[in-house]
Amino acid sequence: MKFNKIVSIISLMMMTFFLIACKGKDDKSISTDNGSNKIIVWTFNEDLKYMAEKYKEIYKDKEVEVVIIEANDYFIKTNSALRGRSTVPDILVGEADWIIPFYEAGYFEDLSSSPYNADDFKDKIIDYVYEVGLDKDKTVRALAYQTTPGGIYYRRDLAKKVWGNDDPEFVGQKFSSLSEIKKTATELNNYGIKIFPDMGSLRYFSMGENRDAWVIDNDVTLSENRLNYFDITKGIYDNKEVAFASEWSPGWYAGMNGSIPYNANGKEEMVDVFGYSLPTWGMIFFRNSGKDMAGNWGITTGPNPYIWGGTFIGINKYSKNKKSAWEFLKFVTLNEDTLTWWSKSRGDVVAYLPVLEKMEDEENGYLGGQKTYKFWTEQAQKVDYSKVTKYDREIEKYFIQAVGAYQEGKMTKEKAIREFYRNVKTIYPELNVPNNKQ
Prior knowledge:
- With 438 residues, the chain is of the alpha+beta class.
- The chain contains 17 helices and 13 strands.
- The radius of gyration is 23 Å and the shape is globular.
């Protein structure tokens, strides 16, 4: 599960350099397995720690050591170990938006082949989750226990106040496109309500309904949706229709539980935040920070489906304990009892369809009784992952940076776009950008 995890561009560049540089001629899988019942897991969050505790409760003869590494250090530490063909860890992880270089470096065991035969489970896993676990040759390299589609959490009382209707489908129409979001932002602002806590809540709605590609045949381009995003979001920024409570700040969290301070023209006033763009795991923040608002929130759709985070798990190709590692990996990602327990105990939305189908009619009291498992399953099934490349994470960072410079008046739109292309070309010289934008 992904929380506030910020990975610097420098770290990513170093990781990419090392991964490419260390890929040797002999990348054949090491099949040695000493049959040890102990495995070592390296991860960057606590989920697998809890999974391991449950595993050891059931299988008394098994031992799982979970090492939690700070997210900013995970790239370098893991790469340093595996480029030296370390047999530790037995299990390693990655996230959807940066795992591809690990596949290319050859660190993950081939799970499509015998004795794993992970392809057999394809029809039981959310499509995009299965796809994230595939390398460029469509070989399964990793599996996941969760799905992390996003939506818009919104306040039901404010929806009733402004429109007299808090139904998710009705509210979803108010967020059905970027142009509709702009209209809605102005409408809410007229009531003294800010549509989102900050401008960052809009960033996942620049891709369009069909997820515009960043890179096509090595060419980088800005789609019409993303060009429109510059102007629509600047209008929201200029009209001060968000609360300017930056993501993960105290004010950002406080907006989940009621009004927050807002500085307008040097005078502080209290304002309400209408909604937050967050994925499945965002529910944890609302439960922790918005206890007084339980039952008063809902969840609806935005202009397009999107995902945020998701922990993918594989076996170290150099591990000597692959049999034991696979047993644990299956327990975490493909065991119906495990995933039912995880869903009920942690409130996480799993990627295993039999569990999602079993829980689709369960109501979420915090979100006004909505059947959220059904909602998230529908959103996850709409996600198109086919256009994602290993470049997307960094390209998107430069795009948001360029949009921010335009919103704040630091650059014209044209200059911001030129700067965007220049930055992308600098970090990825192998990609093509428009000649007049370099």
